Amino acid sequence: MAETSDPRVAVYLDFDNIVMSWYDRVHGRNAYSRDRQKIADDITDPEIAERLAAATVDVGAIIDYAASFGSLMLTRAYADWSAPLNADYRSQLVARAVDLVQLFPAAAYAKNGADIRLAVDTVEDMFRIPDLTHVVIVGGDSDYVPLAQRCRRLGRYVIGMGVTGSTAKSLAAACDEFEAYDQLPGVTKPETPAENGRSRGGRGSGSGRGRGRGGKSTPENGNDQTEVVDEPSGAVVFSEEAVEDPQEIASRLLQRALQLGDRGDGDWLHSSAVKTHMRRMDPSFSEKALGFKSFSDFLKANSDIAQLEETGHERLVRSTD
């Protein structure tokens, strides 16, 4: 039996969101919207079966990551489990003791069924299990921002998870910590797919059902982008406007963290404290996602911004200005 002082973790998976988002990540932007009808018509079609197999989500990697924060008290996955695509995952989920929450096909007036049910269950569990310490929300929909904020106000540590390219920046900012599914141990990062899924007029593509909740302008690091929400998945994709280089964003984040930590006295700072500060400002920051093996390597690559001093096991850094 776990000690009562052990962190206790609850995991909530918007399963349709993560499956469809990962499909798009592997096969290209809006790929699932284009293939949705083919998948619904015949999931055993050789071409479709091959594409689905290449985009299979490793549920075990998600659960193992959540377990690194403490003892898993409950794990729930929300989807229409009668759908052939989701049914293929049932044995994998049951083997990991995941509670499958059935969501019947939503009518046109109930587009946010998974979002609402997941949010209601999460809030109820926080009051029903008062010693719950960590909440893991798996899904990239910006509709989960109020849920993450409420969990934090109630004293829980919130971890968000989504697929790179299909996660709202606002959701990452609302969490204490955010991790991309692509970066989990055991998950093979796909090669960058061809840009064959260009959005049309900010309304998405494919079956035409992606009118979503409308286009939302989101200023992000100075660049205005239009969020297009694919209703069946809840995933956020962006229009074809230029996206700023993640390395440049991270470099500016480092510079800001050093300036705030310096306080004008020019003292050396522990690199771990700088990284912690950076993740507080942007929970989605990850040096590994940028291709660096360690935070020290990231600092060395930004020598024009940060001066790194390594003494034994100690890593100190300060601004070069």
Could you please describe the fold and organization of this structure?
This protein has 321 residues and is α/β, with parallel strands linked by helices. It is built from twelve helices and twelve strands. It has helices at residues 15-27, 31-41, 46-54, 59-67, 84-87, 90-95, 113-128, 145-153, 169-174, 246-262, 271-281, 295-301, and strands at residues 8-14, 71-79, 99-102, 134-138, 157-162, 177-180, 216-220, 223-230, 235-238, 269-270, 306-311, 314-319. The protein has a six-stranded parallel β-sheet, with helices on both faces. Strands 7-8-9 form a three-stranded antiparallel β-sheet. The chain has a three-stranded antiparallel β-sheet with strand order 10-12-11. α10 packs across α11.
Count of DSSP helices? 12
Mean pLDDT figure: 79
* Bulk shape: globular
Helical fraction equals: 25-40%
Largest sheet: 6 strands, parallel
Specify the CATH homologous superfamily of the largest domain: 5'-nuclease
Fill in the keyword field for this structure:
321 residues; Rossmann fold; 2 domains; 6-stranded parallel β-sheet; 12 strands; LOTUS-like
